[in-house]
Amino acid sequence: MENIKRALISVSHKQGLVAFARRLTALNVQIISTGGTARTLRDAGLAVTEISQITGFPEILDGRVKTLHPNVHAGILALRDNPAHLETLKEHGIEPIDLVVVNLYPFSETVQRKASEEETIENIDIGGPTMLRSAAKNFAQVVVVVDPADYQPLIDEMQASNGQVSPATRRRLAQKVFEHTAAYEIAIASWFQRQAGETLPASFFLEGQKTAALRYGENPFQQAAAYASSEGTGILNAAQLQGKEMSFNNFADADAALSLVADLSSASVNPSGRSAAAIIKHANPCGSALGDSPADAFAKALACDPVSAFGGIVAFNSEVDELASASLGAMFLEVVVAPGYAPKALEVLASKRNLRVLEVKGWQYPPLVVRMLSGGFLVQQSDATLLDGEKLSCVTSVHPTAQQEKDLVFAWAVAKHVKSNAIVVAKDGATIGVGAGQMNRVGSVEIALHQAGEKAKGAVLASDGFFPFPDSVELAAQAGIAAIIQPGGSVKDKEVIAAAEGKKVAMLFTGVRHFWH
């Protein structure tokens, strides 16, 4: 390994730049720089060689062309242990470049602030990625830095080893470059796809930055990590106010809880803007409700299945107050998620030191859902569909009462978040029975009705899919269910409707299903 003698620095993000350059200069490293970076360093009193002195050509086209030159890339790509390469450098008067420090035009940031198309395109970096890739390809002989967080450890290593950098550090920094440029290109390609209105384009990309190394995945023998997308709002953007670190299952269940309370906050389900609470266990709602306050909503949700709620995840659509926090603190829970907490509520929850308390200011459905399979993956749009009142039709001569219709709409929203086959029994804006994930619909109906017990009398029932036979309707009627909501569309719809008519059970068709496998 040779000492670092010449460094090319060209950065958009200037944080930590001057201090880093000062320490390089103290190690007798010559600094070559471009445009705004050179001005920043010169203003700080540092000696800088302009890139035009290396290329023998001025920066042109408003800075679009400045480093795309053989004197730059030959200096980076030349193999120092190849005599022919060294002879070529000597022949053309090119000196090697040992360190390349580059970060890129802020393309994603420009997109996020909804800049014009012209400005967005101007923030597609060309020379930066080219230099980074050249240096990373030749990492054995050129050190490359793309992340300002690496300035300090790199300069510390150089100082400790007389200007040298270990092969392990070189390889790690090169890997980081290719990860960064790949994500950069994905952001650009994805922007073009969105501009073209392509929901499912010919090439599909996933991009995310690692935000947490999790202890394990769903099981202790599975490695796992959390990655946050540069776009979107939700559980991976949450602020953790207290408690143990989040696990893989905590994240998954907390997201399920957030998505449910988001739907329960919609105008079609909750026109008066009442508090909503959802309790999730193993990805399924074991209780959910609307209430006059967070404490009221939680109490009604908990009453559905207090046994399953033990060790569950709770989400609210409104600020948690002191009264609600007292109820939460009275039982064992893994996670509480809300858009905010009253100061007194946080004091109460602080007594449960292991309880994870998350603050999420917003949540939105991801535009697409990806499921990995052997050999590739499936992609589909998120099921962000809510009940369309215009498509809702009563198919029986018996009509639901006004309260029953509210409960039907509520139960339908909850059923969307229950694993298929999904059955939800509800009354007065709260679930009283949930049947999830059974291989046949009758099994889910039996579980939900058994859980509801005597409360099923006068309650409503929602099914995420149609009833293939009248048997589920007959069971519901025997338990006292007053109204049913389902998609319709079975070849036996007439028999199912007739069964409801015979038992004087009101039945609504939605015209849409909500399978969740």
Chain oligomer state: single chain
Report low-confidence residues grouped into runs of 5 or more: none
CATH level 3 topology of the largest domain: Rossmann fold
Please, how many domains?
Answer: 3
Strand arrangement, major sheet: 8-13-12-11-9-10
Helix content class: 25-40%
The count of strands amounts to 21
Which architecture name of the largest domain does CATH use?
3-Layer(aba) Sandwich
Q: Shape, please?
A: elongated
The CATH fourth-level homologous superfamily of the largest domain: Methylglyoxal synthase-like domain
Number of helices: 19
List the helices and strands and how they pair.
Blueprint: E1 6-11, H1 17-26, E2 30-33, H2 35-43, E3 49-50, H3 51-55, H4 70-77, H5 83-92, E4 99-103, H6 107-112, H7 117-122, H8 127-137, E5 143-145, H9 151-160, H10 167-195, E6 209-214, E7 224-228, E8 239-242, H11 248-264, E9 275-281, E10 284-291, H12 294-304, H13 306-309, E11 312-316, H14 322-329, E12 333-338, H15 343-349, E13 356-359, E14 368-373, E15 376-381, E16 393-394, H16 402-415, E17 423-427, E18 430-435, H17 441-452, E19 460-463, H18 471-479, E20 483-486, H19 493-502, E21 506-509
Helix pairs in contact: 4-8, 8-10, 12-14, 14-15, 17-18
